[in-house]
Design a protein that fits this description.
By secondary structure, the chain is of the alpha+beta class. It folds into 4 domains: about 140 residues, Nucleotidyltransferase, domain 5; about 110 residues, Ribosomal Protein L22, Chain A; about 150 residues, Glucose Oxidase, domain 1; about 70 residues, Beta Barrel (OB fold (Dihydrolipoamide Acetyltransferase, E2P)), CATH 2.40.50.140. The protein is built from 15 helices and 30 strands. A 7-stranded mixed beta sheet has the order 7-13-12-8-9-10-11. It has a 5-stranded mixed beta sheet with strand order 3-2-1-4-20, sandwiched between helices. Strand 27 and strand 28 form a beta hairpin. Helix 5 packs across helix 6. It is elongated. The structure holds adenosine-5'-diphosphate and magnesium ion. The site of adenosine-5'-diphosphate (ADP) has 17 residues, from helix 11 and helix 12.
Amino acid sequence: MMKRIVAGVDIGNSSTEVAVACIEEQQVQFLSQHLVKTTGIKGTIENIKGIQIALQEAAKKAGMNVNEIDLIRLNDAVPVIGDLAMDLISETIITESSMIGHNPDTPGGAGLGVGTTVLIDRLYDLAEEGQDYIVVVPKPFDYDWVSHRVNQAKSRGISITGAIVQKDDGVLIHNRLNEKMPIVDEVNLIEKVPLFKMAAVEVALPGHVIRTLSNPYGLSTVFQLDPDQTIQIAPVAKALVGNRSAVVIRTPQGEVVERKIEAGSMILIGSKNQTEVSINDGAETIMNTYERLGTLHDVRGQTGTNVGGMFNGLRQDLAQLTGQSPKDITISDFLAVDAIIPTSVSGSMAGELSMESGVALASMVKTDKVPIQKVASVLEEEMGINVEVGGIEAEMAIRGALTTPGTRKPIVILDMGGGSTDAAMMDASEKITSIHLAGAGDMVTMLINSELALGDKELAEKVKKYPLGKVLSLFHMQLEDGTILFSETPFPPQTFGKVVIREEEDLVPLSIRNSMEKIREIRRSAKQRVFVTNALRALKRIVPTGNLKHLSFVVMVGGSALDFEIPQMLTDQLGKFGIVAGFANIRGTEGPRNAVATGLVLSSVKCGVTK
Ligand code: ADP
Ligand code: MG
């Protein structure tokens, strides 16, 4: 019998994993493995670049040339695209008032000041008796001159109730004032501050938050608004909640322009019937409606709504990628979870956000023409090596997972990747059933990114992967469990007083205002919402009776099984049903990684592919 070198290639949403083995007389000897970031969207031609690099690296590790590989086996990659669907995109353009963007953390003084905005150097010319003024201080004016000027003006009977300062001078000016007043500083776009308009400046004492401008009725009191105007200004108040300082300026221009896009409804199409459910009903109702429907054939979104736009967009994107008509593309599964979504308030000048509740959706998009065949033929041509599509991903994963010491059939695997959670069950007679569910690690990252308003996926990914700490002093850090860590060497100065991500060697300071406890809570709840929900959904469907008590072994594989808390959450949850659940150790060495690639190699023997 011939000796053959077989490579299993698992193209995932996030990673492309390779296993290289030598097969001789049905004996499989694994030689090496490698992982690279997937290039392009899973299941498309763009994947080839990543596959080639992964194969080259794996061949190098095995001490061979990549041409020595006789057969490449690819997984049957199903594309999954996730997106956020919001409860309501409410673009409220408030021409009646504006907030001023500034650094809210380092103001001067405290209290509330209301008055007419005026440039500091025009104060003497323009000030009228009996009027209150807020002075506007652009960059060129230095704090000594400004404080002197304000002190002098006050002694002449000009009433100054607050200041808006461009430089980081708030505290310096405040210290030199005879009569104290609230000062906001670091207002970058000071030239945009409208002059001779009513403005309110509020500063809270250190460790406190503003109370008046963050309350709609506070704003209505300050600016003497009627009930309709109060409704219009409410998003401004909402966006200022939790700030230590704020400025709101009233700029009456009459017209209030408002544009709203409704969240809309989803139309779930089953085998016999279809039902409609509104996004506003929330994730639980949506998922219950889906469960009652049973088998899903497709999902459509109500046209002209936010969710309609989302599903149409998905179809369009995938149609373009695979060169098919959008009609031939269907949604085979989706996961809806409740989410908090930051919404920008258009009356603001620095992109201030208000947090709205909404629904996050991940969808599994299916095409009739499997695009992976095309990837296989192009790869074959470019490398001059036989390429075949090896089979259903979850089935491959189960074959790989069974190489974990201490496991046996019947077994269920949960492959928790970036885009999808795949589950497969192998019964005692080796019959395999599998399903692919939308929603996995990327959705957790998306939720964290949204709910902490990070606007930075890479950072959200770090928040997901590593525990937090709070640097209390140069040598002390409080950990998530409340214990205090003492360091022999001082922590970097930029981390002082900050919540930090404890990434292996590095400390990454977070410049958001949420407390460590709040960030941890959001992180853990995002993981629960996605993975606990999906694990239960998967198991219910895959276990013939739907009764989880009949299960004994659940093995977790995939990148998200490397998470420092997800496997624990599932172990706890599944333990309630008497199930032994834990993460895999593929081939006794690889941990939860490389299951599908390993399975692809092993199944080539079972299928009798090797001659
Ligand atoms: P796919 O098969 O979809 O390509 P993977 O199995 O490579 O996915 O898993 C990718 C997911 O695993 C990503 O969401 C990534 O954030 C997550 N992940 C990778 N490493 C870790 C880790 N150490 N801790 C938590 N999550 C991780
Ligand atoms: Mg995978």
